[in-house]
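Tip: read the tokens left to right.
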């Protein structure tokens, strides 16, 4: 049984994690990204020149392509959510999961907007264009780095969830240190490989981190305001769901809980 109550939605505020609003805002965010990419006006030169930075002299093949990072990030996210679901009491998995998606969508909106606004060319763009090399559309603009913004958005959101939900346990700080180390490694490689300038990396990382932390804080407010925390389980019920939570952390939540935000009532 699907239960949606749009009357409780305050359309004057952004409420990531609230299913009734997510059904509207997520498609809108995706559409906005597409529109920005389609309607911007290309210019022959950067709209806002960066004159005080030396670009890397050589372009190397990216050691962290999107095709590699996407499955790694998906696996990491599943593991993080599965751990929180299995080890913390009454974890609101669906709202936190959807908030994580929002964090990356907003980060992509800001990244895309910055790129088409500044239109700073990649460090290698001029040289390769003069050589007649074919350059992908994604490799045209440089400021700021999408790899850096999404890497730090991922680290910021996941670390915020771990630290908050585990009450700042020592292991949570180890997790956060690992997440930010990997984000730094991915971001640094973009400059070392000649794919971006260092200012692209610093700006992208700062924007992604700020966006993710602010999004997570808002998600937690939405969870509290709308009472999205699952009901307390009792006795054998807690044990019955612990293995399921570890094996399938985001596929389903049953027994008057939710299926990525869709309420179900199933009896066994």
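Filled-in amino acids:
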């Amino acid at each position: 049984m699907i239960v949606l109550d749009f009357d409780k939605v305050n359309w004057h505020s952004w409420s990531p994690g609230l299913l009734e609003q997510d059904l509207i805002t997520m498609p809108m965010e995706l559409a906005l990204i597409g529109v920005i990419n389609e309607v911007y006006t290309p210019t022959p030169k950067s709209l806002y020149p960066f004159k005080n930075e030396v670009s890397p002299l050589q372009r190397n093949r990216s050691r962290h392509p999107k095709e590699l990072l996407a499955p790694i990030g998906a696996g990491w996210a599943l593991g993080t959510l599965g751990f929180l679901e299995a080890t913390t009491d009454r974890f609101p998995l669906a709202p936190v999961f959807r908030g994580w998606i929002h964090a990356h969508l907003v980060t992509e909106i800001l990244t895309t907007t910055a790129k088409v606004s500044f239109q700073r060319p990649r460090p290698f763009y001029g040289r390769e264009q003069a050589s007649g090399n074919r350059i992908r559309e994604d490799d045209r603009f440089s400021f700021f780095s999408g790899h850096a913004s999404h890497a730090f958005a991922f680290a910021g959101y996941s670390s915020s969830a771990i630290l908050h939900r585990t009450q700042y346990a020592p292991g949570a700080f180890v997790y956060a240190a690992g997440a930010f180390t990997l984000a730094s490694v991915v971001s640094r490689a973009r400059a070392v490989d000649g794919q971006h300038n260092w200012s692209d990396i610093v700006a992208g990382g700062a924007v992604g981190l700020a966006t993710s932390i602010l999004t997570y804080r808002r998600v937690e407010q939405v969870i509290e305001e709308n009472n999205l925390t699952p009901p307390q389980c009792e006795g054998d019920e807690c044990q019955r769901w612990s293995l399921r939570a570890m094996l399938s952390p985001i596929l389903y939540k049953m027994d008057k809980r939710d299926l990525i935000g869709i309420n179900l009532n199933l009896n066994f």
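DSSP finds eight helices and two strands in the chain. The beta strands are 258-259, 262-263.
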